[in-house]
Amino acid sequence: MAEQKEKGWQRYHTIWLMLFIGWVVSYADRTLTGPVVTWMIANNVGFLEAASNPHALGGLLGSLFFAGYMLTQFPGGYFGDKFGYRTIVVISIFWAGITTLLTGLTGGLVAFIALRVFTGLGEGVLYSNDRSLVAEVTPPNKLGLGMGVVMGGLTVGLSAALVGTVYLIEWAQPSMGVNAWKAPFLILGTVTIIVAVFIRQALKPQGKMGSENFGKALFNLLKYAIVFLVAIMAVYFITDALHLNDVMIAVILTCLAFVLIAFIFIKKGHEVSPILKDKNLVLIYISYIAILWHLWFYGFWGGAVIKDFGGGTLASALLVISFNAIAGVIGFPLGGKISDMVAHKTNGRRNVLIAMEALLTVFIFVFAAYVMSGGNDMVVQSVILFVSGLIFFALQAVAHALTSEIAPVHLRGAAFGMLNLVSEIGAVLSPVISGAIRDSTGSWGTPLILDGVLMGISCIMIMGVSTKLADNSKQV
Q1: Model pLDDT for residues 353-364, shown as the tens digit of each residue
Q2: d(CA 34, CA 50)
Q3: Cα separation, 418 vs 252, whole angstroms
Q4: Mean pLDDT lowest for which of 27-36, 198-207, 260-269, 440-449?
């Protein structure tokens, strides 16, 4: 690949930058819900005002978003392989901006849920196509670094939303009153649409004109999205009418993932069997459930955890938990670079991933032990969370590069789609189960311990992955 020998700014650097920015706005859009829900519970306003179990209901709102996000993972990757990864990336960011803006224009619980689900359906197609586009344009010896640099945008968006959401709400309170929670959605939705326009232009293929495949790709995505929206809302209404608790609703929603996987086996089994039957890929898929559980336990409830353990105001608690998120700006590229350094060794990336997951498990328990024993020094909490976040985000870049190496080139999008389809089970269940445990026990201690146990199990599963020497000829 000629670009490997060139110096200075390259085309793939531009693509990395645009995807980085795309992740910033996309992740900020999805992270808004947690701080908004926490603020609504603390101030006893909006549709959470009369809830008997507000943390469980608030967690369910997050879980419903991730149910939508989960279900378009595989279709998004499949259509990316078919219509082009850039095309799907651009559609996803436009989609996120429009639906986030519309969320700020609603007021009722049902409309909020439907728009959050539809936001998730659109954002769900970003991951597999972003990862595949990075692999497609990046020199093989910089694959891990590219994966990490781009995903650094995730942590910027996550941190910005965790810290900034409450300040946006407080800024809007004088003019919007109890509806001030809508302000972050209105502002960020508008910003995301503007960013989408810019990214579309910047990612336009060189030497080509027009918006190739956008119409066909959007039409196919909408067909799936509408079916999934109807299915998710039907589950919500039926289970609510049956008076099932919020945890049961989330569990039933995860069953939709298994229905989709069965559908893929039946309809696309022969075409995508290399990424469905590979033992190594399957182990990575399942082990990653704990990664998404951890991400959205901290991402959704992190501020509430710190606040309940003596972390002062909600704003200061969210600032503390943001140290965990912002660590990813360093962690993602660092993990990718480390994995590139050992990629020439048999099981090199896998061994790094095992070591990082083991370290993360230790730090999760260290943090749990500190706060549960009464430790509430914000500096100590911030240091533990920063180191923990550094490891957590670094290991994700390693896992992405490992997946890219194992998956066949022509099925990269489908492989990353399946990875996130399975792993999003963790994101669907984490907010609502953790919130329900908090409501029933009155403490965040048990959810913290559960988080560490799941990460330990994930580490053990990765030990079962076995790879050959990295075949860099695959990375074109």
Answers
A1: 999 999 999 999
A2: 18
A3: 19
A4: 260-269
- Asked whether 339 and 144 are in contact (CB, 8 A), the reply is yes
Q: Is the dihedral of CA 104, 109, 110, 115 positive or negative?
A: positive
Query: If pLDDT is split at 50, 70 and 90, which confidence band does 5 have?
Result: low
Contact 329, 444 (CB under 8 A): no
Is residue 176 classed exposed, middle or buried when 0-12, 13-18 and 19+ CB atoms within 10 A define those classes? middle
How long, in residues, is the chain? Answer: 476
- Note the pLDDT of residue 256: 83
Q: What share of the chain is helix, strand, coil (3-state, %, to 5)?
A: 85, 0, 15
Write phi, then psi, for 138 (nearest 5 degrees): -95, 135
Please give the backbone phi and psi of residue 243, each rounded to the nearest 5 degrees, phi first: 60, 35
- Residue 151 DSSP SS3: helix
Q: Which residues contact 189 (CB under 8 A, 6 or more apart)?
A: 29, 97, 98, 99, 100, 101, 102, 103, 104
| pLDDT band, residue 75 (cuts 50/70/90) | confident
pTM: predicted TM-score of the whole model, two decimal places: 0.79
Residue 353 has a pLDDT of 96
Residue closest to 33 by CA, chosen among 126, 110, 112, 125: 112
